[in-house]
Amino acid sequence: MTTAKRALVTGVSGQDGWYLSQLLRDKGYQVSGLVRDGDAAEIPDGVTVLTGDLADSDSIAQAIATSRPTEIYNLGALSSVGMSWEQPLPTANVTGLGLLRLIHAVRQAYGRETPNVRLIQASSAEIFGDAPAPQNENTPIAPVTPYGAAKAFAHHSAKVYRRAGLFISTGVLYNHESPRRPDTFVSRRITRQVAMIARGKAERLSIGSLDSRRDWGFAGDYVGALYLIAQHPIPDDFVIASGQSRSVGDFVAAAFARVGITDWRQRVELDPDFVRPVDTAEQRGDASKAREVLGWRPSLTFEEMVAEMVDADLARVDAP
User: Fold this and answer.
1) For the chain, which ranges sit under pLDDT 50?
2) Which of these is catalytic: 124, 157, 169, 178?
3) Domains of the chain, CATH where assigned
4) 113 counts as catalytic
5) pTM over 0.85
6) Would you call 222 a catalytic residue per the annotation?
């Protein structure tokens, strides 16, 4: 009888943590999830909840000692780019230094070289800043936001400790959405407001800009890539992206199209309160390496992803 693989997922209560822990459970893993004290978010069935925080070294060490994972997925972060301008220090502490605390705990528990545990870091396209598109694994790291800077620190830390013998890989994730995306993100604000407009409960969608271009994909596909990265025998970096960029206006149009509204521009108003201090014009990733080395392929198109989000928000609006 083989022993089940054991995974520890930080940020398990977030969008990505939910999809990843479901995937791992389906594959027979024993899954433990790190959850901050007082976090009331939904946790998938079958996940062992461990109270801890990426800002607290002792709680990380205790979580590792309790779960004894064979794979660790670091998804925990203060992940709002916009809020990172308002909360730069907590963002740096959790999103940047959090990985360093996790690495230290792994080395303390398993030794300096870690053949029996694999650590996967969820990195971000924000590390590339304004680099010309498409960006790939060799694109220079030059962030332009506090969130990007924190993720860049973690990304560099992963490379440093990989060279020192730690099995640590990164997935550089481009924008990925789902019906589990919080309302604080622009993608979910769009689909939520469109649903309300479709049901006659709102008149307009307020947004900062329609021009920024992003590379959007489905969160379930992107955590599937993280799983494949963990199975790859050599620790490495992989860009995970659709390879196509679309404007925020394209996202808005797709959401309105789902509810049968074609004259959407008259229902949108630009609001300077939603404009970030600095924003990149275009993010578009080249995931050729992930496709060729890992065999990764996305399952949902952009339009299908937006449709799922709109449908979920219509159900929320219609709920009694």
Assistant:
1) 1
2) 124
3) 6-176+217-240 (3.40.50.720), 182-215+245-283+300-318 (3.90.25.10)
4) no
5) yes
6) no
